[in-house]
Amino acid sequence: MERIPKALIVLTWLTSAVFVVALYLVLFWAxxxxxxxDVQRVFYFHVAAGWxxxxxxxxTAIVGGIYLARGEQRWDRIAVASVEIGVVFxxxxxxxxxxxxxxxxxxxxxxxxxxxxATIMLLIYxxxxxxxxxxxxxxxxxxFGAVYGxxxxxxxxxxxxxxxxxxxxxxxxxxxxxxxxxGAFNMTADMRVAFFFSLFTFTLIYVTLLWHRLRLQHxxxxxxxxxxxxxxx
Amino acid sequence: MPPxxxxxxxxxxxxxxxxxxxxxxxIGAIVWKDLAAEFRSRELIGAMLVFAAxxxxxxxxxxELDIRTRETVTSGVLWVTFAFxxxxxxxxxxxxxxxxxxxxxxxxxPVDRSAIYFGKAIGNLFFMxxxxxxxxxxxxxxxxxxxxQPGLILVILLGSIGYTAVGTLLASMAVQARTRDMLLxxxxxxxxxxxxxxxxxxxxxxxxxxxxxxxxxxxxVMIAYDVIFIAVAFMVFDFVVEE
Amino acid sequence: MIKVRRLVxxxxxxxxxxxxxxxxxxxxxxxxxGPNGAGKTTFLRILATLSRPKMGEVIVAGHHLxxxxxxxRRRLGVVSHQPLLYGDLSAExxxxxxxxxxxxxxxxxxxxxxxxxxxxxxxxRDLVREFSRGMQQRLAIARAILHRPDILLFDEPHTGLDQExxxxxxxxxxxxxxxxxxVVMTSHDISRAADLADRVDILSRGVITASESTDAxxxxxxxxxxxxxxxx
Lengths: 233, 243, 232
Description:
The complex is a heterotrimer.
Chain A: H1 6-29, H2 42-70, H3 73-104, H4 113-133, H5 138-169, H6 189-232
Helix pairs in contact in A: 1-6, 2-3, 2-5, 2-6, 3-4, 3-5, 3-6, 4-5
Chain B: H1 19-41, H2 43-62, H3 67-99, H4 102-108, H5 113-143, H6 150-174, H7 180-207, H8 212-241
Chain C: E1 2-11, E2 14-24, E3 29-33, H1 40-47, E4 55-60, E5 63-65, H2 69-74, E6 76-79, H3 91-102, H4 107-117, H5 133-145, E7 151-155, H6 163-178, E8 182-187, H7 190-196, E9 199-204, E10 207-213, H8 219-230
Parallel strand pairs in C: 3-8, 3-9, 6-7, 7-8
Antiparallel strand pairs in C: 1-2, 1-4, 4-5, 9-10
Helix pairs in contact in C: 3-4, 4-5, 5-6, 7-8
């Protein structure tokens, strides 16, 4: 059994500590928003989760490109790990958004461009995972994953753009779903601190999870190899 | 078996002088092959057409396409029909290559892999356009609307190009997976959303006689989509078919 | 014509070829024997440029693989256990399609020539999906030699054929080989391999474990040898 690397242990504890600080900043330190009240506090982690989702999928597209160029399996491991984390955080992003939207927009769900784009993005990466599950040969799985990771990522800004145009052409929407119109607010200096600290915290969480996931993958492959040598011996 | 002597010392036409010609000839050969096979069997277009007609029929009752609602939903109904019928065609067109190992046959030929992609994509585009060319007058007659407007034709062309460009790439992957037929729509539709949205809005714009200024953004989205994804598919297709 | 040194191929963590060495001279007919899962098909797919080697050196007709795959493809004819033909096209149309893909110059004449060779000229306008397995396999050979390749790779061409079709195939194979081509054929039929080939190589667990000239050994000795080197 391989030991967990020292650096990873340190990083994990550090991330936990930073997360506690972020919780404190978001829940107690940042001032209460004048109109929306405490529910506005969802905003900090909501945006941070969305940021990690986007970052994770960007990483997948980039390492996918590197994998196609070099054909080294380790890039593919990063791609999968990153997608899995990205899917979870995009989901958190959508759920926290709904929690916020319920009292502010008076609905769980609206057809706002950001909301719809996030959901379509989530569907793309669920499709990514399903594609990989359908392929047995590891090299082919990695190649297809890389291709779809790139194609999917490129389509996201186009989706956002087209839904944006869709909205500007049809400005009359039920309940006024435009977030800049309803539920918009100016951040105070303290809010800004909590906001950027949340972004930093979630990025750190992403890195920590990615490392753990890669280690897990590595161990799973080790076991697979041992099984093969045991069988063929 | 009549005896024949084999001549080994015989060079085939080298493509060094006309490598572009060889490239185009291979694309043409693949398109010809797909059309000739389809002309014999009529399976693919037949299935796509029947399916498309059924989709429109279902929409007719589901949406109660009376005169007022019809005007606003026609473009949506058309594009959903094309998109669904299209996956049928894409699946079938790639399954033909996979079933008797023909994809290997294509890969063994001394041509660039992108020629295989363009050949298949153009073939798929043809099938898509043929189906659309039959569905449009059918819809026009059924609902007494004139769908033969140059603007709408342009939108359908742009939409079909983008659809087959992405569809051919993703279908080549889906067909090599265990869950092949099931997988294609799941892979394809989320990526297609910007194109389909633009196509629906632009078609609707032309049908309702909107001003060009309102339609142009959608046309631009479609052109951008087509250009970007043809370029991406061109670059990554090698990795989809090679081992 | 073919030279392979220390070839390694893996599927994920699973090794298939483990440092395989192999060599075929000009005009030689080599049969590759081995139990199922020994890596015969994988090896042939690498020679056919359809699969990339993981490590090692592969030289076919003086070109390195996979770097110069395009140059190799031109000189290669491949028959796999799948026919690589389109069922909804006629025999003639299939050959015409592949002639275009390979840029065969005198195509009409050449198509007739290969159809005569494999004895399918009278059936040239029939759809391939109406053909029997043996006829499909013969047409597959016609397809493989259409562009006059000097190296031919056959992956278990006799699979699924009845006695008569197999005998007919043997005759076609002999005719092709006698024209001075280099042939590599995988098989698990020892006596047939001994009958057709100049040399028999035995592939077991990812390496060549024996290589014998068929002149030196009779089929019974060969079977003995096969048993001894493939035993697990």
